[in-house]
Amino acid sequence: ILLLGAGELGTAILSHLAKHPALSATRLTVALRPSTVADPSSSRLAALRSLAGPSTQQLSFAGLDLGAADAKAALVKVIRDVEAEVVIVCTGYAGSAAGAQVLVAEAVLEAGGVVKRYFPWQWGGDYDAIGPEVAGGLMAEQYAVRTVLREKAEAAGVEWTIVSTGIFMSFVFEEWVGVVEGLGEALKTGRREAVGERVTVRGFGGWGTKLTLTDVQDIGKVVADLVVDPLGERNDRGGSVVYAAGQTVTYGELADVVEKVVGPETKVVREEWTAEYLRAELEKDPENGLKKYQLMFGFPKGISWDKEKTINALRGIETVEVEQWLREKLG
User: Fold this and answer.
1) CB of 49 within 8 A of CB of 18?
2) Domain boundaries, the chain
3) Rounded distance, CA 276 to CA 138, Å?
4) How far is CA 7 from CA 12, 22, 120, 155, in A?
5) CATH code for the domain defined by 2-166+214-243
6) Is residue 142 within 8 Å of 124, Cβ to Cβ?
7) Neighbours of 136 (CB within 10 A)
8) What pLDDT, in 10s, does the model give residues 22-44?
9) DSSP letters along 131-178, please?
10) How far is the CA of 13 from the CAs of 49, 63, 91, in angstroms?
11) What's the pTM?
């Protein structure tokens, strides 16, 4: 198994792969920046070995720079060198060069003689429903990845699985995103007493807009389960799209949870940012990536689905809901 990247999501997936009993003899390779891999005393490598636990002897690292001119050829070589039958992409589109996700998909298909199964970076919305043009084309590349897979994967002999997870639960509480402001320091330190006197919760698109939130640890559980127990049928031109969810809530329900958890000592201020307001803000600054995200998070399609129909519900995989997640993070 080859993992590309080991950030918040990659470490969660690595952890659950490493501790799954059915994968105890499976070789795991994590592709990281060449400078990280070149330093054997790197604290980053030590942390990943620690995370892998007893599977450390099955863990190795490969240097890979997806921003390099020869990135595609380099990735094909890594795949062939480690004989990766499963490739899982954990390098997010936000921090990647333009076109990197399509490049990765094409490299995986080129190595189709080795790769049997592929999990692309599609951990997020339903990009078929969102489409390539919403929010100034924010997810055009994600949409393009699906097109490449549907057109070429079957002929390459690569089975692809897209796991739509909604928004990472931690992401919606990032101060800079603008949904919840005032909990940043408390969440960072795990100190409930660091919660201030005022917290702001914003409803993008209106308080009734729904969003699906999933913790990265739960995504790790789902991926490990799918690696061990693949889907029985490929119902979408050589692959499948499945859905995961920790909880689907409206922005109004999210505000209720925040208010319940922080208690009466903290004033929760609610601000509704309508779709019209979000569109107008983006029109003022059309290249602003944050405003594109905010508009997409207020979009009525592609960012929510019923938990009862998800792969975790169908397989009995327990997932964390917002209130539990927030209480645990606040200590």
Assistant:
1) no
2) 2-166+214-243, 168-211+247-302+320-329
3) 18
4) 8, 24, 15, 32
5) 3.40.50.720
6) yes
7) 17
8) 998 999 999 999 999 999 888 99
9) -SSHHHHTTHHHHHHHHHHHHHHHHHT-EEEEEE--EETTGGG-GGGS
10) 14, 19, 12
11) 0.95
